[in-house]
Amino acid sequence: MKNGKVDGQVIDCSTGDEYYQIDVPAMQGKFVSSVRAGYLEILGQIVDHCCLTMPFASPQANRIAGRIYDRYHVAPDFPWKSKSFKAYGVFRHLDSGKWFGLIMNVQRGLVTKNDDEQTVDIINLKSDSMPLDDRSVFPSYHMNHKYWISVVLDDQLDDDDVMRLIDESFRLTGKQG
Q1: What average pLDDT does the segment 123-140 reach?
Q2: CA 113, CA 50: separation in Å to the nearest integer?
Q3: What is the C-alpha to C-alpha distance for residues 53 and 57, in angstroms, rounded to an integer?
Q4: How far apart are CA 153 and CA 159, in angstroms?
Q5: DSSP output for 77-130
Q6: Which of 22, 77, 90, 146 is most open to solvent, judged by the fewest CB atoms within 10 Å of its CB?
């Protein structure tokens, strides 16, 4: 795997040389086409069985998404079609469909209220404790500041602490919340 893509070579067993014809689009004979199709099918199977889908930009956001799935059996859905928002992942209660989290990739300055243009993953969570710290936890970006917070997922706040905030949000947005 290189650059996030599965790659390989086909070797001609009779000569020991690479069978480069599968990489040449102009080569369209019956044999080369069948070898190419078989090769692509095998690569697809390798991807399906050995690679993890990483829907978010930051490693911490992807780890947190995995922990949410492990704990609540909830995978993010991506409801927006707009190119600007299509990578925003919503976590919903299975029974009600109510949101308890939203991961977005935004400019840091939108949550820190400065001119920092670096993009970061954040998760918006409902909170009644409002543990704002001017480092990782801020008033919510793009949601009601009274009830929601934004947590920057840049590993400054460890995964266990983020999960405690997610647990609170899950509880607050549940049937009784």
Answers
A1: 90
A2: 41
A3: 11
A4: 9
A5: B----STTTTT-EEEE-TTT--EEEEEEEEETHHHHTS----EEEEEEEE-SS-
A6: 146
